[in-house]
Amino acid sequence: MNYLKTERKHILYSIILGFTGSLVGISIFGLSGYMISLSFFEPPVFIIILIIAVIKMFGMIKGAFKYFERLLSHDATFQMIGRLRLKYFKDTIQTDTSTHSVRFVQMLNQYFEQIEDYYIRIIYPYVTAVLVALLLTVLSVIVSVPLSIVMLIVSVCSLYILPKLFEKLLYHINQDALHHESSAYLKIYHHIHNYIDLFVTKNVHKSQQSVNEALEDIQNDRIKKSGVESLLLFFSGLVQAAGIIAVILLISGEEGLLVPMILLLLIGFFDIANPVILPRTNYKSVSGAVKDITAEKELPEKNAVQNRIVLKNVNYKYPGTKKDAVNNINLTVNQGEKHALIGSSGSGKTTILNQMTGITSSGVMPQHLDFYNASVRDNVTMFGRFNQADQTVDNALEYVEMEYLSPDEIIDYTGHLSGGERKRLHLVRMILEGKDWWLLDEPTASLNEQLREKVWDSIFMRKTVVVSTHDLTRLARFDYIHFVEEGHIVESGSYEELLQKRGRTYQALARSADNL
């Protein structure tokens, strides 16, 4: 809880207000029950009117407490989330964590939505419900000890035992749903952005079928979750019904006139407890998100010496998918070598490149490029992580023919940059980062010939590079070429060796020449 600073008082006040407002709400139910019991004695009309007036006044007081509780709790929560979001982002860009993927940003947003739920839907109302349950259990001793025991059993079953029993099951369902959503996202992205290649290779139907299967998995997860939640609410209803029956059986004789009041007090408690039963089952999921967000990041070693990248018998399967994206990949990249990964879209080139990214500290141009609603300087220096003078930034922008952007200009990422501009601006980022090892995914896509030449020149100036590309015009400049097909490297070698072999690379070069 050390990440809570100025919000602690607001959180405490919101819990006090929520607790007090809940007591007022239960009092409304109790007074209604008391009025029902009192009607048995045919009291004067002004007594009934007085009770009704008090109930109305309590309703207004409850509304006021609820308003200020929501005001304080939401203000505290959103202030905390804003600070955590900024801290997490600043910490992450100082590490080797890949923030380039749009999916990473999407998952990050889901994490913060879970943290919001953690406080607004779980912590505040759950603490309030527990406090109300304790108070009612203690007060019910005044009527009878058995009644107090019933109240305790109903409270423990509703607020702890049942949610705890379903918590693990729903946690696994939520994890499966996250995996399936990740898989669907990747498949949809691949289908949209590689549609032309899929059309040329006549794989559109196969890709569409894969997308449909992924979406069906998501729908099945939702159905499964809805079924489990309905089962939880059913058992909760049984516990509450059993509690009501027990109260009716326990209270008799002179205490019989208290039955309407006690029953309505119990129903009032259920009105507070029911909204927190389902959110309580998500405690494990959202507390995990809180831990991930608030955990201290390990900074990479700045002077680590790197001589090679080795992938040995690597298999990788995207979460939620049944088929390996790459299978039995063996690839070694030594310092000073330049490697090209070629093959059709969806063959596994990007996945292989991602496996290298995870085990090395390099300059990376991923498939999904990320930029932020910030200045050009902040975007290309990663908010000062790459300490470069403005003149150096200007020179790099001029080199990629983007001198029309000043370092202080704010980028509104949505629609501000074309695909080619994003490629060039990311190249500027890599140049300013100054690493000798570069891993790049389709670095010349969406660029004209003149700009492609500049990008290739920058790439070959680096000591060690691995490039996934559809541009086959510069293959002769690479030391090694690897042809990837259906998740396998089907052939590797130098440009001359592969031409002599007359295999997949030779055929791809021939098709490329025919198209030109």
Automatic annotation (TrEMBL):
Transmembrane segments: 12-37, 43-61, 118-136, 142-162, 231-251, 257-278
Keywords: ATP-binding, Membrane, Nucleotide-binding, Transmembrane, Transmembrane helix
Cross-referenced SMART domains: AAA
Domain ABC transporter, chain residue ranges per copy: 309-511
Coiled-coil stretches noted in the UniProt entry, renumbered to this chain: none
PROSITE patterns from the UniProt entry: ABC_TM1F (PS50929), ABC_TRANSPORTER_2 (PS50893)
Membrane topology, record value: Multi-pass membrane protein
Alphabetized GO MF terms: ATP binding
Subcellular location(s) of the protein: Cell membrane
Keyword ATP-binding: yes
Highest taxon above the source species: Bacteria
Record carries keyword Chaperone: no
Every ABC transmembrane type-1 domain range: 14-250
A Pfam family this chain is assigned to: ABC_tran
Function: May be involved in multidrug export. Transmembrane domains (TMD) form a pore in the cell membrane and the ATP-binding domain (NBD) is responsible for energy generation.
Alphabetical list of PANTHER family matching this protein: ATP-BINDING CASSETTE SUB-FAMILY B (PTHR24221), ATP-BINDING CASSETTE SUB-FAMILY B MEMBER 6 (PTHR24221:SF654)
Protein name in UniProt: ATP-binding cassette domain-containing protein
Annotated organism of origin: Corticicoccus populi
